[in-house]
Amino acid sequence: MKTAFPQRLPETLNDIIFNYILRTNLKPFVA
After folding, report:
1. Three-class SS of residue 3?
2. Is 1 a member of any domain?
3. What is the pLDDT of residue 5?
4. Gap between the Cα atoms of 20 and 27, Å rounded
5. Tens digit of each residue's pLDDT (9 = 90 or more) over 1-31
6. What is d(CA 19, CA 13) in angstroms, rounded to the nearest whole number?
């Protein structure tokens, strides 16, 4: 999943963005 993000992004920032997308995009599906 992390490979979907640009390699130039730091691993920490990558995780933050990934987690943010999960929370925002998966919320409607979970609910």
Report:
1. helix
2. no
3. 59
4. 11
5. 566 656 666 778 888 888 888 888 776 665 5
6. 10
pTM: 0.42
The whole domain housing 14 covers 7-31
Contacts with 5 (C-beta within 8 Å, 6 or more apart), sequence order: 14, 17, 18
Residue 16 in any domain: the answer is yes
Query: Residue 12 corresponds to which amino acid?
Result: T
| Inside any domain, residue 14 | yes
How many structural domains is the chain composed of? 1
Exposed e or buried b per residue across 1-31, where buried means at least 16 C-beta atoms within 10 angstroms of its C-beta: eeeeeeeeeeeeebeeeeeeeeeeeeeeeee
